[in-house]
TrEMBL record:
GO terms for biological process: response to antibiotic. InterPro entries: MATE_fam (IPR002528), MATE_MepA-like (IPR045070), MATE_MepA_subfamily (IPR051327), MdtK-like (IPR048279). It is a multi-pass membrane protein. Coiled coil: none annotated. It comes from Paenibacillus xylanilyticus. CDD domains: MATE_MepA_like. It is found in: Cell membrane. This is Multidrug export protein MepA.
Length: 451
C-alpha cells in the first residue's frame, strides 16, 4: 500500500474534476455516435432501407460483445478506482490484469461458439427473407473478430479511470474517423456491401487500440500487468459491480429485438426500417448519456474508496442536474428537427419517412428521464449498491419495457410500441424517488448515512 502517492483528483475541486472528465467523455462518445449515424447514411443511400434494416437486426450481436466488455471492464475499472482511492495500488493492478484476461477469453469463446449456428441466430433476431442476407453478412464478421473491439472498449474505460480521459477520447475519435473512411472505401470504392461495413468496424477498433496503448508509456500510468491468482471473492465482486453495465448494454439488444419483432409483426419491413432510422438517432443520445455517466463514475468510485462522502454527493448532484438539462435540450432539438434527421438517412418511401418522424417525436419524451436514470444507476454501481443499480437497469430496459410492449399495442397499435420506452423511463425514475424518500426517512430515524 502506497501512502505517499497522490491521485490527481485530490488536487481538484469536484466541479473542475467533473468537467475535466465530462468534456472528453461526451466528445468521444458523440464522435462515435455520429460515426454510427454516418454509417447509416452511407448504407441507406448506397444499399437501401432493407440493408439498413438488416444491420439493425444484426446489431444485437455487436451490443452483446460490448455488453461483455462493459460487464467486466466497468466492474473491474470501478473496483480499480476504489482501490486507488484506498491507495492500494498493488491490488488495483491485479484487478486490471484479471479483468482484461477474462474479457479476452470470454468474448472469443462466445463468438466462436455462436458462429457454429449463425444462420439460426439471424432468424431468431427477427430477420425475414428480405433482410437475412444483409444481417448474416454483418454478423458473421462480428462473431469471428468481435474480441478486438471488446478489448478496445474495456481498455478505454480503464485508461479513463487511470486519470487519462483525453487518451480515451483520442482513441474514440480515431475509431470514428477510421470507420467513416473505411466504410466509404468498402461501400463505394470496393463495393463489398454490408460485409465491408463490419470489416471497417474491426479494423477501426484495432487502430483505436493502438492509441490506447500509448497510455502505457506515460509517467502517470498505473495500468501495468501484474501476476494474480484467481481470487474468487475479488472476481465475484468484479462480476457483481459490473453486472448493471452488462444489463444496460444487453438491454439495448432486448430493446432492438423486441421492437424489431413487434414492428415486423404489426407493420412489416417498413416498420422495421423506420425503427432502424430511429435507433441510429437514439444511439447518439444513449452514448451522450453514457458519456455523462462515464465522467461521473471514476470520481464517485475514487471518492467512495477514499471515504470522501461530501465530494461523492457533490458529484451526484452535478451529474444529475447536467443530465436533466441535456434531456430537455435533446427533447427540444429532436422535436424540431425530426423530419430533417430522418431524411438524411436516404430517400425512403413516404410510409417509412412519416412513420419514423411521428414515432421519433413520441419516443424522445424518454430523454427527460433517461439521463438521470443513467446517472443514478452509475452512482449505485460505483458505491457497491449493485442491487439498486441492477433494478434500475433491468426495469427500464427489460422488465417494465417488455411488459409495456406486450400490452400497449392492444390499445394503440404501433404507437403503443413507441410509447413503451418513455413510460418505462418515467416509471423507473419514480421508483428511484421512492427509494430515496424511504432512505432519507431511515437516515433521519437512525442518524446514519447509508450507501
Amino acid at each position: 500500500m502506497n501512502t505517499n502517492w497522490t491521485h490527481p483528483l485530490e488536487k481538484q475541486s469536484v466541479g473542475k474534476a467533473f468537467v475535466s472528465y465530462l468534456v472528453p467523455s461526451i466528445l468521444g462518445m458523440l464522435v462515435v455516435a455520429f460515426n454510427f449515424i454516418i454509417d447509416g447514411i452511407m448504407v441507406g443511400h448506397k444499399l437501401g432501407s432493407t440493408a439498413l434494416a438488416g444491420i439493425g437486426i444484426a446489431s444485437p450481436v455487436y451490443t452483446l460483445f460490448v455488453a461483455m466488455s462493459l460487464w467486466i471492464g466497468m466492474g473491474g475499472a470501478t473496483l480499480y478506482s476504489t482501490y486507488m482511492g484506498k491507495r492500494d495500488i498493488t491490488t488495483a493492478k491485479q484487478i486490471f490484469t484479471k479483468s482484461i484476461t477474462i474479457i479476452l477469453l470470454i468474448t472469443m469463446a462466445i463468438g466462436y461458439a455462436a458462429f457454429t449456428f449463425k444462420d439460426q441466430l439471424v432468424y431468431a433476431l427477427g430477420a425475414n427473407a428480405e433482410t437475412f442476407p444483409f444481417a448474416a453478412d454483418y454478423m458473421n464478421i462480428l462473431l469471428l473478430f468481435g474480441f478486438v473491439f471488446t478489448i478496445e472498449n474495456a481498455l478505454t474505460i480503464f485508461v479513463r479511470n487511470d486519470g487519462d480521459p483525453n487518451t480515451s477520447m483520442y482513441a474514440q475519435i480515431t475509431f470514428a474517423v477510421a470507420n467513416i473512411v473505411l466504410n466509404y472505401v468498402t461501400l463505394y470504392v470496393l463495393e463489398w456491401g454490408v460485409q465491408g461495413v463490419a470489416i471497417g468496424t474491426i479494423v477501426s477498433a484495432s487502430l483505436a487500440l493502438l492509441v490506447l496503448l500509448s497510455h502505457f508509456f506515460k509517467k502517470s500510468n498505473n495500468l501495468t500487468f501484474a501476476r494474480f491468482n484467481w481470487n474468487t471473492k475479488l472476481l465475484g465482486t468484479i462480476v457483481l459491480i459490473g453486472f448493471p453495465s452488462f444489463l444496460a448494454e444487453l438491454g439495448m439488444s432486448v430493446f432492438s429485438v423486441s421492437h424489431n419483432i413487434s414492428l415486423d409483426r404489426i407493420a412489416g419491413t417498413d416498420g422495421v426500417a423506420s425503427f432502424t432510422v430511429l435507433n441510429y438517432i437514439h444511439g447518439v443520445v444513449l452514448l451522450a448519456f453514457l458519456g455523462l455517466a462515464s465522467a461521473a463514475q471514476p470520481l464517485i468510485s475514487y471518492y467512495h474508496g477514499a471515504k470522501q462522502l461530501v465530494r461523492e454527493k457533490q458529484t451526484i448532484r452535478i451529474a444529475s442536474r447536467t443530465a436533466l438539462a441535456c434531456g430537455v435540450i435533446l427533447l427540444l432539438v429532436v422535436q424540431w428537427g425530426a423530419p430533417y434527421f430522418v431524411q438524411i438517412f436516404g430517400n425512403f418511401s413516404t410510409s417509412v419517412t412519416d412513420s419514423a418522424v411521428y414515432r421519433l417525436k413520441i419516443f424522445t419524451f424518454a430523454y427527460l428521464f433517461m439521463g438521470i436514470n443513467f446517472v443514478m444507476s452509475t452512482y449505485f454501481q460505483s458505491v457497491g449498491n449493485a442491487k439498486m443499480a441492477i433494478w434500475i437497469t433491468a426495469a427500464r430496459e427489460m422488465i417494465i419495457m417488455i411488459a409495456l410492449i406486450a400490452v400497449l399495442p392492444s390499445f394503440w397499435g404501433v404507437t403503443g410500441v413507441w410509447l413503451a420506452v418513455p413510460l418505462s423511463e418515467m416509471l423507473v425514475l419514480m421508483t428511484i424517488a421512492v427509494y430515496y424518500r424511504k432512505r432519507a426517512v431511515s437516515e433521519r430515524r437512525h442518524g446514519l448515512t447509508l450507501e
